[in-house]
Write a structure and sequence with these properties.
The complex is a heterodimer of chains A (about 250) and B (about 280). Chain A is built from seven helices and nine strands. Chain A has about 250 residues and is of the alpha/beta class. In chain A, about 40% of the residues are buried. In chain B, helix 3 crosses helix 11 and helix 9 packs parallel to helix 10. Chain B is an all-alpha fold and about 280 residues long. Classes of the chains: A alpha/beta (about 250), B mainly alpha (about 280). Bound molecules: adenosine-5'-triphosphate and magnesium ion. Adenosine-5'-triphosphate (ATP) binds next to strand 2 and helix 1 of chain A.
Chain lengths: ~250, ~280
């Protein structure tokens, strides 16, 4: 038992996750995967495509219960957990604002969201339907939905893929702005190393399938000092520690 | 039946355009429909004049009967009764059929087991169900409405089962992560995705149900449009039969224009408009 008020980390200890197809073929996606992200930290899961990153998030989100092992989520906050999926997954038949409010617990449904929408540059888009948004705007709306919940734990699955470089860069900055406004533990999946180095406190490097942890790379440099130059320096030391991982 | 349905659809689309474009775009198709209907009336009265017979009255005679029945209040009484039965059967069939259809569409094992039942019920003639319902449950409204609903339910089940199979699991997963309550899931996740299927089931449902209701009334009720038609059939009063039929068709068209289409337009407001 953790004492009340103590910082509870995200602690993952998955012994095995195997998919069985209808034809009887079995694919072991995860094997002995264990890592920790301290409370209030931003962790990144970095690994090659198809290694089992989305599978891990789905287990942590409670969407997949067929696995052996255990995990523990940080507590606190009102919304518990929130997620930004690989696709924005907004309800096309509800406006941006309705999408955000529907995901809130009943007690927060009417809360003031002006600040959040302003920060994310969505102030004028609240009454639009998702079909009327660009992908970049839809991803912002998905971020708004997650942060409006004031979650204790936030999961993000490659939230910036298939955006052009500048939009992705802009959204990364927005993500950091809203993330640092409240103490939130975050775990983000990515296979973009530079992105991981820009955003995270801790990078969990995964091996190809079946996924297990190759090693941990802690980024101790405060975020405001991570200039272009600093990132290249970090890249170098990362490659020294993990030769062969890109 | 087909001709009448097509007519309703054309009228409907005319009205549907008024929501989007200017008055000119509305006027011309509306004018076409009016002229087309007037042309049909004209043809009918010419034919009735050419072959004068009590079995083939002209539009004028039918109109006279319509006014007479309206003045006595009979018309509205029987129309209202039939309409209430149509509404009750429709609501029962849609609710029961949707629930069963969604359950079958989302549980494969149940679907495999119950699919033969669905096929069986799809193929029982309406008349058999009506007769059995009257024998088992007596000549009352519950049996009448139940029989109509049972006739329609298998169709709704099949349509809604398709709809449930097409549900996108990623929305349900989003709802699970954000802890949507049961009612919110139904209202904001399930129903919007099923809306096109509900609309399809509704449309074919109303068309089928009101025709079966007339048969049910003819066989075992002492009021309603079906009963009136049976009565005037025994009197060989074709003008009255046509008067009741046309009045009821008109009522169903008005419902289509004023209720069904606005609801569908409202439900589809989020779809990207064609530019
Ligand atoms: N429902 C499923 N049934 C069978 N196999 C699956 C299923 N979902 C995932 N897999 C397999 O598990 C492995 C890991 O998949 P996962 O989606 O977690 O990869 P990922 O790391 O998120 O990849 P990407 O970076 O491309 O998104 C893959 O080999 C995939 O084929
Ligand atoms: Mg993935």
């Amino acid at each position: 038992m953790q004492p009340v008020g103590a910082a509870v980390p995200l602690r993952v200890d998955i012994a095995e996750k195997t998919f069985r197809s209808a034809q009887g073929v079995s694919v072991t996606a995860l094997k002995d995967l264990s890592f920790e992200v301290r409370q209030g930290e931003f962790g990144c899961l970095l690994g090659p495509s198809g290694c089992g990153k989305t599978t891990t998030l789905r287990i942590l989100l409670g969407l997949d219960k067929q696995f052996s092992g255990s995990f523990q989520l940080p507590e606190g906050g009102s919304g518990g957990i929130a997620a930004v999926f690989q696709e924005p997954t907004l309800l096309p038949w509800r406006t941006v604002e309705q999408n955000v409010r529907l995901a809130l617990p009943k007690s927060l449904r009417t809360k003031n969201l002006d600040g959040l929408f302003d920060t994310l540059g969505l102030a004028g888009m609240r009454s639009l339907y998702p079909a009327e948004l660009s992908l970049g705007l839809a991803r912002r709306a998905a971020l708004a939905r997650a942060f409006a919940n004031e979650p204790a734990m936030l999961f993000l699955d490659e939230p910036f893929v298939s955006l052009d470089g500048r939009t992705a860069e802009q959204l990364r900055r927005l993500l950091l702005t809203v993330w640092s406004a409240r103490p939130t533990t975050a775990l983000m999946v990515t296979h973009n190393l530079a992105e991981a180095l820009t955003l995270s406190d801790r990078i969990i490097v995964l091996a190809p399938r079946p996924a297990h942890v190759l090693g941990i790379f802690d980024v101790r440099l405060p975020r405001q000092h991570r200039s272009q130059q600093a990132i290249s320096g970090l890249l170098q030391s990362f490659h020294q520690k993990f030769p062969g991982v890109t | 039946m087909t001709a009448r349905d097509t007519g309703g659809r054309t009228l409907g689309e005319t009205a549907g355009m008024s929501g989007r474009s200017g008055p000119a775009a509305t006027l011309i198709p509306a004018l076409t429909v009016t002229i087309s209907l007037l042309g049909l009336c004209l043809l009918w009265s010419l034919a009735a004049n050419a072959w004068p017979s009590r079995a083939f009255p002209g539009p004028g005679q039918v109109w006279q009967v319509l006014l007479r029945e309206a003045a006595s209040g009979d018309l509205f009484y029987h129309l209202g009764t039939t309409l209430a039965r149509v509404a009750a059967a429709y609501i029962v069939a849609m609710i029961v059929g949707s629930v069963i259809g969604i359950l079958l569409g989302s549980h494969r094992g149940a679907d495999r087991f119950f699919n033969p039942w669905v096929i069986l019920f799809l193929n029982i003639p309406a008349l058999v169900i009506i007769v059995l319902a009257y024998i088992w449950f007596g000549l009352n409204d519950v049996a009448a409405i139940g029989a109509v609903a049972v006739n329609k339910i298998p169709n709704v089940v099949v349509t809604m089962r398709e709809g449930a199979r097409a549900l996108d699991p990623s929305y349900a997963e989003m709802a699970a992560v954000y802890r949507f309550g049961f009612l919110d899931r139904v209202r904001h996740i399930l129903l919007p995705q099923l809306q096109p299927y509900l609309a399809a089931a509704s449309r074919s449902g109303i068309a089928l149900i009101w025709k079966i209701v007339l048969v049910v009334e003819l066989l075992g009720r002492s009021n309603g449009v079906g009963f009136q038609i049976y009565l005037y059939f025994q009197l060989f009063d074709v003008a009255a039969i046509l008067a009741y039929t046309l009045a009821f068709v008109a009522v169903m068209l008005v419902i289509e224009l004023l209720l069904v289409q606005p609801v569908e337009r409202h439900a589809a407001r989020w779809r990207r408009r064609p530019t």
